[in-house]
Specification:
134 residues; 5 helices
Length: 134
């Protein structure tokens, strides 16, 4: 299914959010603020998923249940080579969401760094699909 002009604009908006969250995550990581780095990475990944799915299918689910998000991403990416990596990256980000946002443990560099990498993977994929049309 081809996205309409309006849907492509929505995808671009989701991508802009994803890029802003990723930039914030990377800045927080560099400044050793690991909890906000991890939180921003999670939001970057979810926004990147929204951008990808909207660009490829015309809409994205906005449920509070993020568990279905990885499945939605995987289905949208279908047989693309990046499907497995995108699915894995989003699942790891979503799995960390509860601990990062609601847990009592302080997030360390060991936890934050891979989350920022996962977010970067998804944002780069979103750029390819939304901005570059690949």
């Amino acid at each position: 299914m081809m996205a309409t002009a309006e849907q492509r604009n929505h995808a671009k908006s989701f991508l802009k959010k994803a890029e802003e969250y990723l930039a914030s995550a990377e800045a927080n990581l560099a400044a050793t603020r690991y909890t906000p780095a991890a939180g921003d990475a999670i939001h970057a990944g979810i926004s990147a998923k929204d951008a990808i799915v909207t660009a490829l299918t015309g809409s994205t689910s906005k449920r509070k249940d993020h568990a279905t998000a990885a499945k939605e991403l995987r289905q949208s990416l279908a047989k693309r080579a990046e499907a497995a990596a995108g699915d894995r990256a989003l699942r790891e980000l979503i799995a960390a969401k509860g601990d990062v946002e609601y847990g009592t443990d302080v997030v360390t560099a060991i936890k934050a760094e891979p989350l920022v990498r996962r977010a970067r993977t998804l944002v780069e994929l979103a750029i390819e699909i939304v901005r570059l049309g690949r």
